[in-house]
Q: What sequence folds into this?
């Protein structure tokens, strides 16, 4: 049985997300590209999206990368309203899987159940760096940086599987939201090819366009 999350209380995404070509979303990016346009998931226009999903007030943190003043990383930290000392985090970084695997031991495994093919888990990465605790992060590599959604606690407890499940549910929720997707991709949002016009067969066996 799926675990309930704050994200489950949000409004239905309608049918829009079913038109999105999620296989084309995980495009990857060049972390050394001087023109990389990192996405800001903490923009004011997106705060209503998180509120609609039942999350607490977002606290935004920006980090300028040393030697790359044109790149600013954003982290939005939000309280989990249902779990003690637990938080959600939505972040975007210019750090791809290769850099994660070579510079840390945070790489975990692929996340095949996400609606976004190629999503992958990391754990105990970035979130609450000043405190002990445990978290799980699910990531996708967009053209505008690595989008990372985390769930974690500030205390040590063996609930890694739960953190991963909650993080994935939130990722899937925001990736079904049209406002979030439009902010991330703009006119470049990949959509599935339009379906042929619906045709109906009449009682006499003659088909006609709708």
A:
């Amino acid at each position: 049985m799926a675990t309930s999350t704050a994200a489950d209380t949000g409004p239905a995404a309608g049918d829009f997300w079913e038109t999105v070509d999620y296989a084309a979303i995980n495009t990857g990016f060049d972390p050394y590209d001087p023109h990389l346009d990192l996405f800001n998931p903490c923009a004011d226009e997106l705060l209503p999206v998180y509120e609609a999903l039942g999350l607490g007030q977002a606290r935004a943190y920006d980090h300028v990368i040393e030697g790359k003043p044109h790149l600013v990383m954003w982290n939005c930290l939000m309280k989990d309203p249902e779990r003690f000392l637990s938080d959600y985090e939505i972040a975007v970084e210019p750090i791809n899987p290769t850099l994660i695997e070579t510079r840390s031991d945070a790489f975990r495994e692929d996340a095949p159940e996400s609606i976004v093919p190629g999503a992958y888990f990391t754990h105990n990465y970035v979130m609450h760096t000043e405190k002990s605790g445990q978290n799980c992060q699910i990531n996708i590599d967009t053209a505008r940086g690595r989008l990372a959604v985390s769930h974690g606690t500030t205390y040590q407890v063996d609930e890694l599987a739960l953190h991963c499940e909650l993080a994935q549910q939130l990722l899937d929720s925001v990736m079904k939201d049209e406002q979030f997707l439009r902010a991330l991709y703009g006119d470049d949002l990949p959509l599935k090819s339009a379906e042929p016009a619906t045709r109906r067969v009449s009682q006499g066996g003659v088909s006609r366009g709708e």
User: Anything to note?
Assistant: The chain has four helices and nine strands. The first strand starts at residue 59 and ends at 65.
